[in-house]
Amino acid sequence: xxxxxLFGIGVVTLAGILQxxxxxxxxxxxxxxxxxxxxxxALSGLIVFPWIINFATVPNVTSVxxxxxxxxxxxxxxxxxxxxxxxxxFGLGISRVGMALGFALILGITASFGSLFPLAMxxxxxxxxxxxxxxxxxxxxxxxxxxxxxxxxxxxEHDLRPGNGVRSGFTLGLVICICSGIFSSMMNFSFVFGxxxxxxxxxxxxxxxxxxxxxxxLTVTGGFVANFIYCVYLLNKNRTWAVFxxxxxxxxxxxxxxxxxxxxxxxVFYGMGAASxxxxxxxxxxxxxxxxxxxxxxxxxxxxxxxxGASRRALVYNWTGVGVLLLAIAVISAGNAx
Length: 338
Known about the structure:
13 helices, about 80% helix, about 0% strand
């Protein structure tokens, strides 16, 4: 195999592992509420690390922003804000249905809608072409996978609480995950409408692998606003500001910061790997990234005991759903190859 191709696949695989693992440290932050751990993730992953990497990898990054048209900057920020709503719902969703099920549900929806919506808005004439038909077919397959995952979640809820039926908590978590997947697809809109920033970064001397960092940084900063507002609301409502000093604060702070490092590290490594793959970035890189992301979350979900005590039926539903989602990603990727 070509060394460059092998390197690119390896880096993309590492990116998927990092992304699929970012929420795992939160399970070790005992005594902390969701708003405490998620605020640390938002600060580190959406503000600190993105801007450090942005300034470190893009020469004259300030001039990149100053030279961009106001409409481009506004679109990137607005779509970033909408993505931030999805990110907030992501945290709430996985806290209710678990890492394994939550990642599969949300990423499955994001993978489909993140490609289908921009194509329908910007190039509706391509909906009848190979790429458009593959996206539509992939989205339909994705819906089938979501049905199996929903059945798996309901079966697990019933198995873990025999005699009590299905709690409304899972239904609410399912709705949150679906909404998160739809809003999370807005990040791709930022890249579609913010390409001017990537081009200016290249002209400024940035490498092809790092040229998108100005878009990333501005997008996730917009997303930080939604996360910050909701976390502060919960901290005030639940009076949990003091939790930051309780238990083992040094360990919890380190774990909280690591969630942001893992999450944004996955983004950076995916950019590097996709750039190494060249024209194969979207064809080979994207499905590998999404697949490893979901599998990593499934691994951590299993390690943390999320499916302990679940019946064989629930596990069959779950793995069938995951398999169908991976098939949907493959179908969408095949369409992008065209």
